[in-house]
## 1
Amino acid sequence: MKVILNGEETEVPVGQSVSDLLDTLSIRTKGIAVELNLEIVPRAEYAACLLSDGDHLEIVTLVGGG
């Protein structure tokens, strides 16, 4: 199935969770935020949050500074 990941169409397996996608992309969960269809996904819900065809995801790295 296809999802839009950070503005780019990406093919992912059916039944994949946000957690699975992060593992596939070798992205650590610390210091990131995941937005799915304009809603922030709490880190505790990554494994239970299943992706669907056409979903829009944004994965951003949080940085501190001033």
## 2
Amino acid sequence: MIRHTLYLLLLLALASCQTDYTKLPTFTANKQLKAVIETPAGNTRTLVYDREKKEFVADLDAGQEREIGFLPYPGNMGFIPSTEINKNGRGLEVLVLAERRETGSEMEVIPVGLVQLEKNGELRHIVIAVPSRPSERRIDATNFEGLSKNYPGAKAILQIWFSNFNKSGNTKFVGWRDEKFAEKEIQRWMKL
């Protein structure tokens, strides 16, 4: 009987251990930038990580599940762990240009640029990245110059998507920045 009770307690303890994705290191042991995927490529419903619940939940807008009013996500949307851009604890956003990854996936990525958007008078930065592993890349670019020179259509698609994805229509595309700017933004928002 005691053995079964101990086994049950061990199972309960393990089940209650949840990863706090916001506290994962920003970089892996081999110095690769890490991204945590919230909303997989191809989704129209937005998912976000709830720090308090330590789980991924539907993003709500006026009490309703937020749904993209345009084409589905063109990449895997998530955040860079151990970064914090506001008092709500939201991490710096990242869009990983790769095949669909499930919610909660951790990826090693290389920033290739940054998109600047304006919403309600506030500037919003989204890092654009590709997987670090060449075998996982669908876009063979590891910097902004390579993305711009070899994939101008991808940049145009992302610009159109970010200009139209918000149903309320109050998001304005401001511009592109290079990977060096993206890296500075990551450093700027890292929690020390």
